[in-house]
Design brief:
The chain is about 35% helix and about 30% strand. The protein is globular. The protein folds into 3 domains: about 5-105, Rossmann fold (3-Layer(aba) Sandwich), CATH 3.40.50; about 130-200, Dna Ligase, domain 1, CATH 3.30.1490.20; about 205-445, D-amino Acid Aminotransferase, Chain A, domain 1 (2-Layer Sandwich), CATH 3.30.470.20. The protein is an alpha+beta fold and about 450 residues long. The strands form 6 sheets. An 8-stranded antiparallel beta sheet has the order 13-12-9-10-11-14-21-19, with helices on both faces. A hairpin with a 5-residue loop joins β9 (about 205-215) and β10 (about 220-235). The structure holds ligand MV4. The site of ligand MV4 has 16 residues, from β8, β12 and β13.
């Protein structure tokens, strides 16, 4: 096992990782920006090092500063959390070059899944269903038109270096394709330093279903069921749950099996997520793979009563996977409480937490880094807390969520709590009738 882990992150996930490390008897090092001096990850880690000014580029994305912090503290591993450097193949490589274990998959696996065309080809070869479209990248308009004619409009034009909804365009016909092909290439070059595009048929009325996978250094690859994340806005997830109302045990077995095969195909080590679109006929299509522990990992933990982050650290240290495949034991739901004003287009609402009461009770879990008097800085993402419930049925998890949301008092800033209260009482949500475009069609205030 490691002696000391540096956590290259902040907020609730830094606390989550510190807890797991402490339980394993591993020392912890926090890094923090000048804006995070009074953060709990600084207080709860055994050591803390300031790595730069508030902007992420100069602190949580500052590779030389983080590597130096790991070196001077004699850390033998770095946990990147999610976001920031978590899916940066160069960071993973630099860690390894300094004899520091990067707690995550190999740089090769990160890089293959980072190129969305390579990822798709890799998954297709491994037996994972993919969306019909181009074989790899399309570099000229003439080929793009040929592919689109044979696939059939509407299509999606996607940047190979995009992902998470960035760098993609829906195209309805040939003249539109002629108009935007080169523009999309230029934008991809400007945003991602890579102009390459690929084409897919547009899949409509679909749900976002992702499979949690886990691999180790000994060739074991398993799946830990699905999460449904269809309640999203501008590609930001707001509510996640497991199991999904749309996934039967038969479908779960199939999606899980091909996902574990996909993980094996890249010798994947640690927890990862394979994201799919599931259409109304029960067809599922690979979208992308996330090579990190995800924000919504706690619902899988509560559904199966496991600890994904502890297992991640143990597996990174070379231990064999101890988790096993099992159908969901409990239904679990997560509501993301953000410092945003849902009444004003979800405008960020940084500032001081003047008053705070955190809900509790049986079946309630709150992962948060805030406390009364804490100042939410404007520089980072707006996630304040993850409110997670679990029960013996979906309805029980919803009922617990309603009670917990009513008990959750956060004063001084605006939060997404009113949105979640509305959704927990919304017949469309309660009946599972939500697809990824739901929040684009409705105004939540009117629900
Ligand atoms: C699609 C699609 C429809 N057809 N690809 C958005 C995020 C990225 N992971 C893939 N995305 C999509 N790709 C085809 N061929 C619709 C989306 C999409 C979406 C996917 C998952 C969750 C929310 C979404 C919201 C809008 C679009």
């Amino acid at each position: 096992m490691f002696r000391k882990i540096l956590i290259a992150n902040r907020g609730e996930i830094a606390l989550r990782i510190i807890r797991a490390a402490k339980e394993l008897g591993v020392k912890t090092v926090a890094v923090y920006s000048e804006a995070d001096k009074y953060s709990l990850h600084v207080r709860f880690a055994d050591e803390a090092i300031c790595i730069g000014p508030p902007p992420s580029k100069q602190s949580y994305l500052n590779i030389p500063a983080i590597i130096t912090a790991a070196t001077v503290t004699n850390s033998d591993a770095i946990h990147p959390g999610y976001g920031f450097l978590a899916e940066n193949q160069f960071f993973a490589e630099i860690c390894n070059d300094h004899n520091i274990t990067f707690i995550g998959p190999s740089p090769e696996a990160i890089s293959r899944m980072g190129d969305k065309a390579v990822a798709k080809e890799t998954m297709k070869k491994a037996g994972v269903p993919v969306v019909p479209g181009s074989d790899g990248v399309v570099t000229d308009l003439k080929t793009a038109i040929e592919v689109a004619e044979s696939t059939g409009y509407p299509i999606m034009l996607k940047a190979v270096a995009g992902g998470g909804g960035k760098g993609m365009r829906m195209i309805s016909n040939r003249s539109e394709l002629e108009k935007v092909f080169e523009v999309t290439r230029s934008e991809a070059l400007a945003f991602f330093n890579n102009a390459d595009l690929y084409i897919e048929k547009l899949i409509t009325n679909s749900k976002h279903i992702e499979i949690q996978i886990f691999g180790d250094h000994h060739g074991n690859h398993i799946h830990l069921n699905e999460r449904e994340c269809s309640v999203q806005r501008r590609h930001q997830k707001l509510i996640e749950e497991t199991p999904s109302v749309a996934v039967s045990q038969e479908l779960r077995d199939i999606m899980g099996k091909v996902s574990a095969q996909g993980a094996k195909a890249v010798n994947y080590v640690g927890p990862g997520t394979i994201e799919y679109l599931l259409d109304t006929e029960g067809n599922f299509y690979f979208m992308e793979m996330n090579t990190r522990v995800q924000v919504e990992h706690p619902i899988t933990e509560e559904s199966l009563k496991i600890d994904i982050v502890k297992e991640q650290i143990k597996v990174a240290a070379g231990e064999r996977l101890t988790l096993t495949e099992h159908p969901p034991k409990y239904h679990s739901i997560e509501c993301r409480i953000n410092a945003e004003d849902p009444y004003n287009d979800y405008r960020p609402s940084p500032g001081k937490v003047e008053g705070l009461h955190v809900p509790g009770g049986q079946g309630i879990r709150v992962d948060t880094h805030i406390y009364q008097g804490y100042f939410i800085p404007p520089y980072y993402d707006s996630l304040l807390a993850k409110l997670i419930t679990y029960g013996n049925s979906r309805q029980e998890a919803i009922d617990k969520m309603k009670v917990a949301l009513d008990e959750f008092i956060i004063e001084g800033i605006k939060t997404t709590i009113p949105f979640h209260q509305k959704m927990m009482n919304n017949p469309d949500f309660v009946n599972g009738k939500i697809d990824t475009k739901y929040l684009e069609r409705v105004n939540w205030i009117d629900l």
